[in-house]
Queue: 2 jobs
Job 1
Amino acid sequence: MDCIDLRSDTVTHPTDAMRDAMASAQVGDDVYGEDPTVLQLQELAAELTGKQAGLFVASGTMGNVVATLVHTGRGDEVICGSQSHLYLNEQGAMAALSGVQARPLREQPDGTLALNEIEDSIRIEDDHHPVTRLVAIENTHNLCGAVPLTAAYTHAVGELVRRQGIRLHLDGARLFNAAVSLNTSASDLAAPAHSVCICLSKGLSAPVGSVLCGSSDFIRAARRARKVLGGGMRQAGVLAAAGIVALTTMVEQLGKDHDNAKVLARMLSSVPGVVLDDNAATTNMVYFHLDDRIPHHVSEVSGALKKEGVLLDVVSNRGFRAVTHHGVSKEMVVSAVAVLSDVLERKNSC
């Protein structure tokens, strides 16, 4: 039985064009800087994000870790969101690998960090305190409903950090989703950031990889940091070829995912026992939870859905995440909601 997999946009498969490009890719040793396909991908990513240079890395987590290593020193502090990927989902890499401490701030409902709270959290010069070196923001913000952060907000953060003499890193794992949703360019959204990491293997459907972009000096330092993390991938052009196809053919497809998420949210809102969370379907994610009319744990509901061929991401003891992507059509969305509605009806009647 074919599954309707709504757990994440990371489950996307490479397109036929990507597979063809991978099979015919020109390669060289990227650690020596000699892989022509990797070089082409890095130049393309830098151009699209408005930066001087790019660095192909194995994952978004690696990109964020590399950026933190370059921007900070041991004992420094990073201001970030308490629900951010950088803080919650990277195994404490800021402390474990960079030797820096996080200063998490609670996100606003729209995924932003309040500007006055950022400014108030920047340490004064005091021998007792760590030194604030970096602010990190996430666009789109996954755990806030994949809400896109506007260019106006990011520019305001950029102005704040420049005034304070610190750095801004943008975790742009789904930056192109934000750009499509806001009808703007990725370069405008990333312009104020000293570094930005974009992911190729989520909605853009490439099988592997992210690209970290910034100034030429930043990327030179980032190459060293990537190496010590084990990120020298040698003939990586085979993977980079898929990334080039992703950036040149898949960005415009993201709008379809957003449209399907809106269909999903609209249909879910009419299912008894289902409550949409904030920011549902602002891009390609719909967070929702079960109300008190459903006395069953989400694991039971998830198990029943799986038997019917529908996969959802369980995020809490009452909550789910559903993510639309290139592998999910409108018809599949409609079918998934019908299955969920049937499962909940059966559960209620037991």
Note: The two ends are 26 Å apart (CA to CA).
Job 2
Amino acid sequence: MAILKDRKIIVIGDRDGIPGQAIALCAESAGGDVVFSSTECFV
């Protein structure tokens, strides 16, 4: 079952939490198309 099938995804991860690359891999495995992925530091 692809929950995010054919959807465009923008990923913003947190440096001290879950990095953007990890979220992007999860979104791609759910069928999404990651168009932007970044890991930011929110201080």
Note: The longest strand covers residues 33-40.
